[in-house]
């Protein structure tokens, strides 16, 4: 079995959350958000085609491919190999990146299954439950990519260069410019934050 940490929009829950997030905005903002989503969909289709082509080249049948939620893969990697996962302790994990499967992050609760008298070893897989998620439009990663592009670098590729250059910057000069362009706003009805 070949596992891939991207569902390419297959999760109906994330599609509904995405649609609800777009519906919150003005007509002009909705048009822009849908254009951005269409561009990302094209990128995702290209990635999916490359994954499938690679399997074909390796002689691996498509039926062996399993796709999983992007952020649950991050959470599983973080939790299962942490002291919490290894010692079967309940914990909470937060993932946050550019985007994956319409989200930029998730809050995931890990609840270990009860042991079945097998020397502390579980008879069933561990449980990951999504508590909340953040839309790809409220992504710190996309904000970082935007700043990367504005400064003349390649977005989604040269963000590390900005990290290195930031140590040499003058925050007193640049922060006011950044604050005029971007902001963090809390929705007073839901309590959720948006970029």
Automatic annotation (TrEMBL):
Recorded hits in Pfam families, A to Z, give: Carbam_trans_N
Residues forming the Carbamoyltransferase domain are 53-172
One GO MF term on file is:
catalytic activity
Alphabetized InterPro entries for the sequence: Carbtransf_dom (IPR003696), NodU/CmcH_Carbamoyltrnsfr (IPR051338)
Q: What's the protein name?
A: Carbamoyltransferase domain-containing protein
Species: Polarella glacialis (Dinoflagellate)
Q: State the organism's lineage.
A: Eukaryota, Sar, Alveolata, Dinophyceae, Suessiales
């Amino acid at each position: 079995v070949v596992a891939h940490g991207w569902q390419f929009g297959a999760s109906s829950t994330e599609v509904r959350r995405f649609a609800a997030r777009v519906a919150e905005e003005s007509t002009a903002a909705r048009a822009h958000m849908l254009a951005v989503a269409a561009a990302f969909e094209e990128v995702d289709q290209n990635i999916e085609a490359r994954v499938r082509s690679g399997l074909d080249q390796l002689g691996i049948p498509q039926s062996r491919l399993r796709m999983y939620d992007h952020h649950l893969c991050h959470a599983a990697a973080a939790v299962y190999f942490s002291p919490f996962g290894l010692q079967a302790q309940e914990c909470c994990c937060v993932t946050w990146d550019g985007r994956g499967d319409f989200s930029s992050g998730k809050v995931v609760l890990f609840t270990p299954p009860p042991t079945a008298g097998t020397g502390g070893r579980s008879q069933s897989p561990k449980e990951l439950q999504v508590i909340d998620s953040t839309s790809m439009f409220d992504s710190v990663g996309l904000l970082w990519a935007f700043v990367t592009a504005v400064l003349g670098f390649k977005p989604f590729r040269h963000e590390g260069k900005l990290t290195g250059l930031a140590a040499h910057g003058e925050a007193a000069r640049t922060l006011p410019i950044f604050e005029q362009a971007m902001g963090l706003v809390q929705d007073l009805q839901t309590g959720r934050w948006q970029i």
